[in-house]
Write a structure and sequence with these properties.
Number of helices: 22
Distance between the termini: 75 Å
Bound molecules: zinc ion
Strand content: 5-15%
Amino acid sequence: MPDNYAIADQFSLLSKLMDIHQENSFKSKSYGSAAFSIEKLPMQLESIPKEQIASLKGIGDSTARKIIEILETGKLLALEELIAKTPEGVLEMMQIKGIGPKKISTIWKEMGIEGLGELLYACNENRLLLYKGFGEKTQKNVKEAIEFYFRHQGHFLYADIETYALHMQDVFESQFKENKFLLCGDFIRQMPTLEKLCWVTDCSNQQLATFLKDNAFETSELTDNILHAKGIENVMLEFQFSPRDQLQKRSFILNGSEAFVDAWLNKYPASLDNMHTDQDAFSAASIQYIPSFLREDPAIIEQAIKGSVMDIVQPSDVKSIIHSHSDWSDGTNTIEEMAKACIDKGFEYMVISDHSKSAFYANGLTEERVKAQHQYIDELNRKYAPFKIFKSIESDILNDGSLDYSDNLLSTFDLVIASVHSNLKMSEEKAMQRVITAIENPYTTILGHPTGRLLLSRKGYPLDHEKIIDACIANKVVIEINAHPRRLDLDWTWVARAQEKGALLSINPDAHNIEGYNDIRYGTLAAQKGGLKKENNLSSFSLADFEAYLKG
Ligand SMILES: [Zn+2]
Ligand SMILES: [Zn+2]
């Protein structure tokens, strides 16, 4: 039998969900206060004769009927129906401190956001500020509360865990000077998301466990050779213990996909004996070195045999900021501030691509504002030459695949980035029609974040990647590798295929402020996994080559 607390919880949830669904607010209030009254009752409801429940203080007829329903069936149908009508991600929002049902309702029904990752991304883009009841302070609190929540889920973006991983490496190295700690696994493989950090070490299991416990980590021994630990950051740390002469071998096995490691061991069974450095396995096999981030598809081994693994793009190879937003739409810096920061960081040019008019939530540019912005960019270009700001727009791809302005206006941009931002729930057929139409538009230069996915929270719409890649090549459209750590879209698993077929890709930060430039690093780490070469990356083009490309 459910006790009063469990019953009160159901009423409290019912009241909140009714508010989220904007149902009768009088009723939802009465269920909310009933929850409160039930909690305060001096006796258990189950011990009260049913006919007396309606006369309890703070409980009316309708509430009484529902209490009886719960007591008799263990369930509340009205609540179950509401839960079924609510997307999972919206239910999850109720776990976040600082956003009550009214705000969740606005977030879901008005902003069209259905998950926490999506909401976090909207905070980064300052989207919440445009809605009633959301100030800068609320937005900041929501952002922090979601980040806190994600930490507790135990899944992390690479970018969110990187500093911690390197810090812990330092901690172990300075604490255990006589021992080795090799960071390995998904982190070394540059996976976009991680569930744990992993080390192989020759430190003794007991010594390490004691040290971790003394530093407030919770530890558990998985086997004699594997220790798990978790500190307040809630990141799972795994330690695999191994004698010193086996460390490199163990780490080699953890630093590649299963398919890669199996293929390797089949081909070069003895190459992992007597390893002292990572390079030794390759020397023993007499083939070219394969960096850990490329040890995914076993086919890379054949390339290494031919000596053709080379010139993988590096963060420093990115020469420009392509895809950035200023305070004309939803960015926070002025175009001039963005340009100066580019010059300071040694970038040769920048592409300002604010949102287009349909993106009203992001203060997208009307025709008049586009013209005004172009005049302003001309002025800045005179002031900061030879640095160059290119006139662009991130045009929404509308439902029917068309772009957001007339051809006349589209022709005034140096380049156009076309992206899907709204109505993401589509069948593959619908999505393909929409995106292919946009790719075929003669004004489209770059396809922005092709699938719209947000890592750890939104899957993105279904696309036939092969066909998208072919259409981009046929229409001379560049495929973006959006470098935001939550996007990394095009996914790295398609980068190699796109490159092989002859597509041009572009690592673009989609910066909404100057700090956003740093994301280029994460886009590059992902592009590296796909083996992207710098000559196939548009944002590595020099200013002259970029201009020639746009003209060509
Ligand atoms: Zn976008
Ligand atoms: Zn953008």
